[in-house]
Predict the structure.
Amino acid sequence: MTGKRVVVVGSGGREHAYQAVLARTADVVVTPGNPGIPGSVATSAEDLDADLFVIGPEQPLVGGLADRLRRRGRLVFGPGADGAELEGSKKWMKDVVAAAGVPTAAYAAFTADQLDEALAYLRATGGPYVIKTDGLAAGKGVLVTENLAEAEADVHDKLSGAAFGESGTIIIIEEALDGPEISFFALCDGTKAVPIATLAQDHKRVGDGNIGPNTGGMGCYSPVPGVEVQLVEELMAVAIDPTVAELRRRGIDYRGVLFAGFMLTTDGPKLLEYNIRFGDPEAQVVLPRIEGDVVELLSSVAAGAVHEAPTVSSDAMVTVVLASEGYPISPRTGDKIEGLAAAEALDGVQVFCAGIGRVADSFTTSGGRVLNVTARAADVESARSLAYEACSLISWPGMVMRTDIAAVTPATPIPTSSRSITAMSEQEALR
Ligand code: AMP
Ligand code: GLY
């Protein structure tokens, strides 16, 4: 123990993963946390004292929590409201990355009084059509469709405020990209960034085979075998480093994680989006693989003095989300969860708790994504088997999970020079 105290802000599986990793070397308090996360307290972050504050979700970052804590002299891992606009405004993000020369989809932004211009631009792109709400929309603000009538209706609904109200009346219309999607994380200390040298792939649709509505993520795995050795260096050079330089040029001192979503197109990796926080459930399969003292690592980022990229274990991790019946539309809650202790007794398994409550001495479901059953092993296939073995021990009425998380992994490396993505075509079918 370093005798340090860390406060983690948030209440989901990502924050449970932070807690587990930071508790290796510090006392950790989580606010508000949940009944399944050790050290959860109801006190708000601004009324707590600690050597380091780590902010998990995007909403408090966009709302300026990191700035308020820094004004009190706290050390904070997470950007201020200025840098948080990378996720808070897709238009601003696209403007920053365009200025930085990062490869990304061609785009234009439109406001409510530009309906005719927006429709003309949309038709000129020729489809598939990609329309995004500018502001935070909990993952629901993006439409990708081949149907022009549907795309036009979406432009009308968003610009008029019918779809997302005021926060949705600025839209981005984008060139459609094609290829496998991957998630990449870099730690930025305000002037420079170091990679977390691995990649993750999540599964966003609710059903097996990528059927049904988008969710916050139904499962995730890391590493992505075969592709990452060549890609990490390239993603730093073409996207992260120029973005940090552009933020700096705009006077923004970004301290925290940059979560970059890329599409691996035949023209090379193209940036889809930046998030200003770890992914959930990506954090559950990436954070535990960071070796060394993660408290010191995140503290050095927060202090503007990150020295070197952390070492990442070559172990693989797979997390499977156990969700409530009806997720993501109307999750049923209040059911008693059975088998949690038996699952966690398996060697290499940890269950991160998200939408969970406690009644007497039992855990109950209290949200859509309830548990993240997470396994660690030498390779993705072994981690996947172990995760599903653990899942089979847990139950509640109506419990939902995907059975194909990490089921197919790319067999051979992507040859960066030829830009062939055939090695990932099976994987692509799984996204
Ligand atoms: P975003 O929130 O911007 O990452 O978009 C959500 C999802 O929409 C992404 O994970 C992609 O699957 C898809 N998407 C976003 N932008 C594009 C694009 N330009 N071309 C094709 N698909 C896209
Ligand atoms: N799992 C995707 C996200 O956290 O945005």
Q: What stands out?
A: The two ends are 41 Å apart (CA to CA).
